[in-house]
Design brief:
There is one protein chain. The protein is α+β, with helices and mostly antiparallel strands and 737 residues long. The chain has five domains: 68 residues, Helix Hairpins (Orthogonal Bundle), CATH 1.10.287; 228 residues, BirA Bifunctional Protein, domain 2; 82 residues, Herpes Virus-1 (2-Layer Sandwich), CATH 3.30.40; 88 residues, 2-Layer Sandwich (Signal recognition particle alu RNA binding heterodimer, srp9/1), CATH 3.30.720; 103 residues, Anticodon-binding domain (Rossmann fold, 3-Layer(aba) Sandwich). Helix content is 41%, strand content 24%. It contains 24 helices and 29 strands. Strand 22 and strand 23 form a beta hairpin. Helix 1 runs antiparallel to helix 2 and helix 2 packs antiparallel against helix 3. The longest helix is centred in the first third of the chain and has 30 residues. It is globular, with a radius of gyration of 33 Å.
Length: 737
Amino acid sequence: MIFIRAISRSNTVLNRIIRNAVPAIRSRFINSNFGFRYCSASLAAMVSTDMEVEALRKLVMEKQSVVEKQGDAVRALKASKAAKEEIDRAVNYLKELKIDLQSSSRELQSKLSDDGAALSKEAFRQAVNNTLERRLFYVPSFKIYRGVAGLYDYGPPGCAVKANVIAFWRQHFVLEENMLEVDCPCVTPEVVLKASGHVDKFTDLMVKDEKTGMCYRADHLLKDYCKEKLEKDPLLPVDKVNELKQVLALLDELSAEALGAKIKEYGITAPDTKNPLSDPYPFNLMFSTSIGPSGLSPGYMRPETAQGIFVNFKDLYYYNGNKLPFAAAQIGQAFRNEISPRQGLLRVREFTLAEIEHFVNPDDKSHPKFKNVSNLEFLIYSREEQMAVKPPVKIRLGDAVAKGTINNETLGYFIGRTYLFLTNLGIDKERLRFRQHLQNEMAHYAADCWDAEIECSYGWIECVGLADRSAYDLKAHTEKSGVPLVAHETYSEPREVEKLVITPAKREMGMAFKKNQKMIVEALEAMNEEEAMDLKARLESDGKASFEVCTLGQTVTLTKDMVSISKEIKKEHQRVFTPSVIEPSFGIGRIIYCLFEHCFYTRASKAGDEQFNVFSFPPLVAPIKCTVFPLVQNEKYERTAQIISKSLTTAGISHKIDMTGTSIGKRYARTDELGVPFAITVDFEASVTIRERDSKDQIRVSVEEVASVIKEVTEGQSTWADILWRYPTHTSTSADE
């Protein structure tokens, strides 16, 4: 009976947890005029909270333990040849426990899969994507030829949303920060990408089906396996649950060997055929090409836009009056030959990037405007929290920089500006977080890196990368091109500084090394202070020393008379240095897709027999700002509609005029599905109504004022609430039909 009491106590605790959790779940729906839509909670929380699932999983494990102990008790009774009545009682009790365990297991399985939930992640995603394709926001490219994975075409409303997002990005960053905008070619010579490291290191780990040769991205297979086990296996022990969560948290840190070991340990096979998989190996993601007809000048389609800015640094620095800091920006197409594109616009082979390279003195990364964003508070997922498998925490940006969680003010400033950009677009601030890269994710030269991640039905998606890349890029292109990409700082008074002086004896070296002399001299002059003083000590000790020349790929022997190494005090009037760069990089397509999901909801018709789709785009990004509807087909109303259309065009407001005889309710529904925020209904010659999409509130204004009112609210000079105070409201039953 001890076991039964333990189970009863567990059930009581579980029920209390569920009772407390249910109101929170209900509060995550809006179920009035707006039908069902996603709010600030995570998508998974719409079906069941993590608290519920974990409590159920714990209960199942407790009951499993009880069953095992009772099974041991039955076996002990049989071994001791106890009385038949006692054995029968124990066996019957064991059967009851097993039935109870099966019941709890089914309940947990139901919570994990939740096929009956009223808008699961998959159903919601399908509803969004069906609407997007049907209304031609975007469609698969080359559709009549069955399409190509990872390539999509934007239709008219999609193009408009994308153009509006880019226009706001340009206003928010380029104009407000006085950035220098450039536009560079997509085709890039191999030498440029060799210098940047892309030719050798721009790879993902791939595995192949050993029988069919089908290719898969290795980390995706491991991620899918872990998620499926967590979601669908109710009897996973707690330590196994924690292990899988740890793998997911540290997935980007796994080396090829570690990734391959996990795939073998978990018995992961090819998804399509269940055949065994090869060991993971790197696959370069760049599209290769040749420049010119000879084929002798190899090139690539650029995988990012940043390199075009770096190679133009010298001219941009001169254009800026030889002053730091300054930022350059570029918006354009980039190309990556993804191993297995999926998830619609989130992982594609051609996409739009908007990138900023902010060049700054490496000794001073403060920012004069940091105070403007320091009080912003949002979710920050630091490296420490990830390693401890803890959730992100909401923290003030100024505190994150002051504590050193974020490396410097300039990086912090761009994180804050990115937060404002995304939330002003319409991204839900409760489903936006900034995640710090783990140590193994970061390049050795990077000072700090963060991703702005947005939650959608696919999980948390990296949409913006923000990195302090130190001086790596400019130094790499300086070394490869021989052109110094440096900045100058002029001192108000000369300064005495200790300088390392390396003087090769060219005559002696020429006699010893002949045609290799130049490369050896360049290698000597490129030494840092530590390397130079070590070489000097060895030369003075032994009279000779070995010296590795990377460009020759060999080690040479130098004698004491071939090079002089010393430190001298010199007066300097200026300092020459390579600037550091802070790089925010925005994936426009990913941001737009997350925006689509965050703005989508359905609402019931007035009769309740029909569901209408709505995109609640802010006016800033809406593809069309307003529509113009004559209430009925009437010459006077149509003439008034044309007058309004002309005034809207003059004011620069995108709009659509619909003179069909369809009912006004259906016309409202059609434009709501396109995300049009305002509808103008012509029901008199002198005045008209303006309807707001989400509240369905209407006001009456004169024909002469229509364009100015729409312009005022769509450009953010006033809110709809402000407009409601100034104009009389209008009530119409047809609006809800």
